[in-house]
Amino acid sequence: MTTTKDLKEEYKVVIIGSGCAGYTAALYAARANLEPIAFEGIEPGGQLSLTTLVENFPGFPEGVMGPELMDTMKKQAERFGAKFVFGEVTSVDLSKRPFSVIAGEIALKAETLIIASGASAKLLGIESERRLIGHGVSTCATCDGFFFKDKELVVVGGGDSAMEEGTFLTKFASKVNIVHRRDKLRASKIMQDRAFKNEKMNFIWNSAVQEILGTKEGGVTGVKIRNLNTGEIWEKECQGVFVAIGHTPNTRIFEGQVELDEKGYVVTKGNTSFTSVPGVFAAGDVHDTRYRQAITAAGSGCKAAMDAEKFLEEHELD
Ligand code: NAP
Q1: Does the active-site annotation cover 307?
Q2: Domain boundaries, the chain
C-alpha cells in the first residue's frame, strides 16, 4: 500500500478510479514504464467489488467472484510498478498542464489524467429511503443480503441489476418481490428467464414504492406501493428494500472543466478516450452510457493508457 510519504510531486499518469477501467489503465501505463498512480476512491475495485459471480468476463469458464477478479487485476498492475492510494480525489484543476489533483491532504501534479471514476447507485429520492438506508434499505445485495435470512424483501427496478440482485437475494430471503414501474423488464433475456423461473421471485408490475415503512431501531417493516395505472396505494409487508435502478456517473469534480453530456457522463471523441481537455482521458462507466460491462470498461482502460502514452510522447513537458 502506498502511503502519503511515498508520493512524488508529479506523475506522468494519474488515474482516478479503481474499477476494471482504472486497474486496466494502471496495468497498461505501468507496462509502458509510466509509473502511474491511481486513486482508488472509497470503494476500491468499483462496482465489481460489490457483486458476486461474474459469468461474462472472458477467460473464466466457471465464472469468477467480482471481488477476486478486482483483487487480481490490482495485483497484476502492482507487479509492473503501478501505485494505488486509498481515498477520494476532492478537486482537480484541468485549466493547465501539469494538472493539479487534490485528495484531502494529498496534492500532486499530473502530466496526463485518466478519469475512471465510474458510476454510483441511484436512489429513489424519497425521505423514508434516506432515513432507513443502512437500516433495512440497501443498494448492494452482495454486501447486505446475508442479513435477510428467511425474510421477505422488495427489490426496485427492472434492469439487469435488479434481476441479478433479486436472484442473488433468493439465496437468503424467503421471497423477493420485484417492484417495477412498467409491465416489461429492461433486463437481458437470460437474466429475465432466470428470474421468471425462480420460485422465490414475485413480480409487481406498473408500480412504484411510494414510502418505506419502519424505523432505524426496528428496521424495515413494509412498503407503500402505488399502482401507476389505477393510482391504488396498498401496503406490502417486507423486512428489507433493495434499490437497483441504475447508476449516475461520478463526475461532480469535473463539472465545468471537462465536457459532460446531459446525464453527466464524460464525452469522449470518436473511438478514442480523448475528452474535451487535451491530456485528459476517460475510461469505463464514467463515459459509457451504452455498454457498461466489466469487459468494455477494461478495454477502455487499455485505450486510455495507450492514448496517454502517445500523448506524452507527442507533448513532452519542458
Ligand atoms: P438500467 O439498465 O438502466 O435499469 C434501471 C432500471 O430501473 C430500469 O428498469 C428502470 O425502469 C428502473 N428505474 C430507473 N429509475 C427509476 C426510478 N426512479 N424509480 C423506479 N424505477 C426506476 O440499470 P442497471 O440494471 O443497473 O444496468 C446498467 C447496465 O449494466 C446495463 O447495461 C446492464 O446490462 C449492465 N449490467 C449487467 C449485469 C450482468 O450482465 N451481469 C448486471 C448488472 C448490470 P425502466 O425500465 O422503466 O427505464
Answers
A1: no
A2: 4-120+247-314, 123-243
